[in-house]
């Protein structure tokens, strides 16, 4: 049985289509990442799969139960952590945990083994009000609350947005441990660099899945020739590269620009322009310290390639 | 399930200092300060005297006005024009002008004129002040008549006197009239405003989202929201009745249990109204403004301050749509007149109607917003 399946899900808000027919399948015990920019439809999809929102059309199943007909059963089986901290600020850490445990007819003690690794970090502060916790601790509390009823599928909506790099790393390690317990995890994120931490990812933009694959395969399927370019005048460089007819696309990536280069019609594995020729072109434009290297594509390169298709 | 939610609500309730203050201070301010302030009894009317006669009678008249307790003589002017200035500068509300030769005219011709002119910007004050002054002058007049009528053989000039009997509120005490209504005002704030704010607050903070993915039923969730405020409502009502008794010596003539029966129906109706608001508002601020608008309208339509019969016919019809009208009526009738439950049946049915209407609307609009 698949943990989650969805077929052609559509949803619009006041005429704006947030999801334009999305389908997915998530295996048991898998970390499935939904990766895309803000406003791509990630939260809408999560809200539909967690029975908080009705789709306009299409169908979805969680653990074999229909999200519309069997929403009550699903609510017992899923844990949901919204993107925004949604626990009670005026209750303490342990009170928050206890109320969510009680509402699922269970107790903290009963499922302590599951949340232990996460909860240990915040246990010293268990008498503190949730509103007074730091961002990272809030996140851990929210995750503990989402797990307290031993869900079979966990939905995490942008759990790493606005969290410091160390806490982000910790969170991903926790997810890996949870995965070992057999919990299927759906996680959304706008950060491309987190894609490689998932078993499979779906790239989403404007309410459409661009591709669903393992991160490795997505990178392997990158079709274009990719170079990184650096010079002293980076902004001018961006403009000049875009003006070259052989350069198909050019984006700023940290301290270099990534460009895809046109291929030779006769030999599709060779670039239509050599590195030396491009360097000469840039020198003519007055650039200094030019460095051009062929590079391996990352997820972000793949995303941009797919998004521009 | 309900038990855990109630536990949470009560914890949050007691933890919020603002809430506790509201529950404690609301009855005290409403019933200690408002009855003193919200009074239509006119006192301390500022009187300006223009005494052109300066005789014995005019002195007696002035003294009578002063000792009545309604007036304070704040200005004595030489002529009418000067006195008018003191009205313009707000030093006086009413001018009493005694003409030259007032005493002589009175004794010789048996007739003299006085002029009373009042500032009617505050119509109530001007009107009632003038009425009081008229009363004083006519009293004075009767006194003079008996004194001037020296000869006991002369036939007595017949005169009529009206002795009103004020039933249910013999001393026409405005406080007695207002306190039952103020108890209801207090209850309205407690069970209308606060739960609506509370539910919308969960919406605004997003905590309702986390609740929605649990298997808690919406009905249970809302019931858990309302119960603490119902409890607080009864608490506030009891405190209110006690303050009315200990401080204002006001005891309901009717059966106190009837008050609680009616209060229960009203609480049900009005908390339903609060739920309707909470379904349409998405922020606490919106809910506040919506609630404020409706409660203000309900209050002015209810006859709390001005009798419903004073209103134009259309407004009288509209006043039937204010649940506050019925419950205020009921409380006044029980407190002052001692009406029994059967006598109050029309109001009871009206309130039941409101309770069904608002709660049905609340349930329907809740489903829609999903």
Brief characterization of the structure:
The complex is a heterodimer of chains A (309) and B (370). Chain A is an alpha/beta fold and 309 residues long. Chain A has 2 domains: 4-214, 3-Layer(aba) Sandwich (Rossmann fold); 222-308, Alpha-Beta Plaits (2-Layer Sandwich), CATH 3.30.70.
Blueprint (SSEs and pairs):
The complex is a heterodimer of chains A (309) and B (370).
Chain A: E1 4-13, E2 16-26, E3 31-35, H1 42-49, E4 57-62, E5 65-66, H2 71-77, E6 78-81, H3 93-103, H4 112-122, H5 135-147, E7 153-157, H6 165-180, E8 184-189, E9 200-205, E10 208-213, H7 215-220, E11 225-230, H8 234-243, E12 247-253, E13 256-261, H9 275-284, E14 291-294, H10 299-308
Parallel strand pairs in A: 3-8, 3-9, 6-7, 7-8
Antiparallel strand pairs in A: 1-2, 1-4, 4-5, 9-10, 11-13, 11-14, 12-13
Helix pairs in contact in A: 3-5, 4-5
Chain B: H1 2-15, H2 17-37, E1 45-51, H3 56-67, E2 71-77, H4 80-88, E3 94-98, H5 102-109, E4 115-118, H6 123-148, H7 174-205, H8 207-212, H9 218-248, H10 256-280, H11 284-301, H12 313-319, H13 323-337, H14 345-368
Parallel strand pairs in B: 1-2, 1-3
Antiparallel strand pairs in B: 3-4
Quickly list its features.
heterodimer, A: 309 residues, alpha/beta, Rossmann fold, Alpha-Beta Plaits, 2 domains, six-stranded mixed sheet, four-stranded antiparallel sheet, 14 strands, 33% helix, 27% strand, B: 370 residues, abc type-2 transporter like fold, 14 helices, 67% helix, 6% strand
